[in-house]
Amino acid sequence: VQLVESGGGLVQPGGSLRLSCAASGFVFSRYAMSWYRRPPGKERELVARISGSGGLTSYAESVKGRSTISRDNPKNTVFLQMNSLKPEDTAVYYCGARWFYDLGIPDYWGQGTQVTVSS
């Protein structure tokens, strides 16, 4: 199993980023996918999740209205589009895969990608 995030980087406040997570080694469409983040000095937090079919999504209040999670099952990839970025969005972002679409800890994790929002 492999989850590889990409798309992080340095962006100015108000800017946008699109994170991608390429999955392999499991039946991607059967797994709910999620994005977590760990801000500097803080605990990991759930940002967004999406069901295997893509029909169900949910977001943390801190990103609701500014972020969109989506997936491309034929390409085994999940995305997180983030707009109107704020300095407090600075974190390492991780994607996770879980058999169930619930709030449990993912079964598989990526290595993370750094997002820094700063002027």
How would you characterize this protein structure?
This protein is 0% helix and 50% strand. The strands form two sheets. Strands 2, 4, 5, 6, 9, 10 and 11 form a seven-stranded mixed sheet that branches. The protein has a four-stranded antiparallel sheet with strand order 1-3-8-7, with no helix packed on it. The mean pLDDT is 97. The chain is mainly β and 119 residues long.
Task: Explain the layout of strands and helices.
Elements: E1 2-6, E2 9-11, E3 17-24, E4 32-38, E5 45-50, E6 57-59, E7 67-72, E8 77-82, E9 91-98, E10 108-109, E11 113-117
Parallel strand pairs: 2-11
Antiparallel strand pairs: 1-3, 3-8, 4-5, 4-9, 5-6, 7-8, 9-10, 9-11
Assembly status? single chain
Label the overall shape.
Answer: globular
Helix content: under 10%
> Which secondary-structure class do the elements indicate?
mainly beta
The main pleated sheet reads as:
7 strands, mixed
**Rg estimate, integer Å:** 13 Å
Mean of pLDDT: 97
Which band does the percent of strand residues land in? over 45%
Please give the count of helices. Answer: 0
How many strands? Answer: 11
- The SSE order reads EEEEEEEEEEE
Low-pLDDT regions: none
Through-space gap between termini: 37 Å
In short:
This protein is mainly beta and 119 residues long. The chain contains no helices and eleven strands.
Which key phrases capture this entry?
119 residues, mainly beta, four-stranded antiparallel β-sheet, 11 strands
